[in-house]
Structures are given as C-alpha cells and as structure tokens.
Write a structure and sequence with these properties.
The chain has 17 helices and eleven strands. It is of the alpha+beta class. It folds into four domains: 147 residues, Nucleotidyltransferase, domain 5; 87 residues, no CATH class; 112 residues, no CATH class; 56 residues, no CATH class. It binds zinc ion. The site of zinc ion has 7 residues, from helix 14. This is Protein FAR1-RELATED SEQUENCE.
Amino acid sequence: MDLNDEGQLRNVFWIDARSRAAYAYFVDVIYIDNSYLSNKYEIPLVAFVGTNHHGQSMLLGCGLLAGQTKASYVWVFKAWLTCSLGRFPQTIITERCKVLETAINEVFPRSLHRFALSHIMRKVPEKLGGLHNYDVIRKALFKTIYEGLKPFDFEAAWRVMIQRFGVGDHEWLCSLYNDRAKWAPVYLKDTFFAGMATARSNETLTAFFDKYVHKQTPLKEFLDKYELALQKKFKEEALADMESRSSNPELKTRCSFELQLSKVYTREIFKRFQLEVEEMYSCFSTTQLHVDGQVVIFLVKERVLEEGNRREIRDYEVLYNRTAAEVRCICSCFNFYGYLCRHALCVLNFNGVEEIPSKYILSRWKKDYKRLCAPDVESNSTESTEQVQWYSQLYRSALQVVEEGVISLDHYKVALNAFEESLSRVHHIEEKPNKNLL
Ligand SMILES: [Zn+2]
C-alpha cells in the first residue's frame, strides 16, 4: 500500500499466492491492462495479465491507482516487480499511452514495450470516422497493416494511402506512423508474444475482468467478483490440465510433425499447431530461391482465402540452415504464437526432416511444463529480500509434496493431511488477518 504524508491511501497493489506461483512459470510476456482506468470506470484498476501453457489468460497481479499519473504507474510497477522477485518480462504489451510508456521505460528498461494493435484498431472509427471516404480509408489502413510481410511493403502501402486520400496532416495518423515500430506487425517480427500479439485482424486482447466489471461497478462489488473471476480461471486451468494429460488428441494427417507434437503440447496449443499442419496442404509449391553457404532461402506459395471469398496466392520466404537446425519464416508465426507455421513446416518437409528441432518446441506449451520446470525463483532476482527467500523455499517444498502426493491414493491422503495440519499450525501463530495483501 502507498500512503501519502497524511496517512491517506494513494495506491494499492496485491497479488495472491496462486498468481504469484503462476508468474514463476510464465515470465515471458505480460499485458498491462489499464483500460478500466483510462476509460474512467468506478474502479481505478490496473491488471497484469499473462498467458499460461494452455494459452489461457491469467492474472499476475492487480493495482488500484489514485490517478492516471506517471508516479502512480511507477509505484504499482515497482510493487509488482518486487513481488515478482525482480524478474523482468521479455515483452510488455499495453495500450498506446504516453504516461504509461514513460513509466514502463523507467521501471522495465530491459523489457520490450509494444502497443496492442487491437486497441489501436478499436479507435479507428472514433479517430477517422469523420473523414470523407471513411470506409475506403479504413479498408486501405487494414490492408496496409495486416497484409504486408516486410517493412518495405508497409511503407509503400502507407505512402500510397496518405497520398490517395490526402490525409498527410491527419494528427492521429501521423502520431501512429511515428510509433509504428511499436505496433505494426511488420516491425514486431523479432518480438516474442506467446500468442498475445494480435497480429491478425480477427485477434483481440480481452480484458481479464470483462464479464465481471462494468463502468459503474463499485469497489466492494468488484472485490467479490475478483474472487469469482479468479476461481473460474483456476478451474478452467485445472480442467485443461486434466484434459491434456488424460488422453491423446485425434490425429488428422499422417504428417510426422503432428504425431510428434501431439505427445508434447497441451491440448489447446496442439489444436492451434494442428491447424498449421493441416494447412500445409494449402501451400502448393516450395522452391529454392537463393543459397548462401549453409543458408538456403526457400519460397513457399500459399493459396489464401481473402475477404469476400477471394482466393489469392501469397509468397512466403523461409530461411533454412540445416547445420544449425534453423528455420525462419517471414510470417514470424513462431515469435507471434510460439510454434512453427505451415510455411516453415513445408520447408522442413521438403528437406526430408521428420522431427521438429527441439528449439522450436517451447517448454511453456508442454503439458507437463509445471513438473518439468520447478521455478528457479532466486535467479535474476534484483531485490531478493528475506521474505522472498522464505516464499521461494516454501514454494519448492510444497511443490515437491504436491508432485509426490499424486502417485497413489495413500500418498494423496498423507500429503493432504500434512498440508491441513501445517496450515492449522501456521494459522495458530498468524497475527496479520489479511495475509494475501501486500
Ligand atoms: Zn510462415
């Protein structure tokens, strides 16, 4: 809690134990959602949202802020960083907002900060709606943003759009263009998004509390709903865990990549990857374009279905280095979504490769990820306090009991009893009533 000189409450940050444990696993990409604050809801809320091994959104902490100021943001980010054991996310996604941007630069200098494209596109009607020829401009803008594969395509299409519609001095479009390196998909190909990229026109980042909060929800009601929302998410994750472990998914092709990853990925991620395997059939030609030592550039042609059922042929360049087991496609599916695309799979297939190289199978999507990766909470810690170390030690000990407690019914009963007993002993010495609030 952050109090002013008179002892009045300014900002609050909290993270419950489950969210904190989750953060220890999924430290790579976070979405800082300040939409409740910037859209003037009754609750001045900022939510830290990540994505788990099933691609489900998960809460990684919450803040209530005195106002939309740099000082408030800096305070809440620092509080989050301390609770998260000083781990810097690789990528931070936010809406396009100057105050937020300065605060992020100050607190997370090592993270890549990117703007959520879906937020920008949502503003199009408001910002461009008044323009003569709005519908045509909107279409041209969408084409420029979503269809180009290289910065050159984007720049050329943007120039044509500006000239054709005479919008060179439109303030919003100008500022958007100046920031393009932070939101235009062609410039984000080296940023890892773990599926939170919204690089395709049908993708959006949904707010974690959307169904639980409306503009007039009072704080007290929100706190009840907060618990409900969290419970629901944890249940969904437990269900997905069970589903992923209990049976093998049905295969749709005879492709070896499909069989290989059906045994590894969680159910949902496998479903997404399976679509890429199926869509290898829409790629009808793989040819060698250029050879430079070990590196070969291939051209993969794909038949894609455009708006209005229009069929179009698209060319994708794929770099392949057999010695380094490296395959990189211009569509950058791997960085955006965390698995290989149909084009890269075609190139591997073309070269007689039967197994996807291990570096393209991310641990964060594996069904037994939590078991494989007991979080190393001390590493990278810049602000390791005594409490953080206690937390870390307790967490490891508890996790070991959980893992071994599922071996048999007898193991389970002993583990559960031990937990209940230790909880009551801890409660016995507990003095602070609100143990989850920090
Ligand atoms: Zn591709």
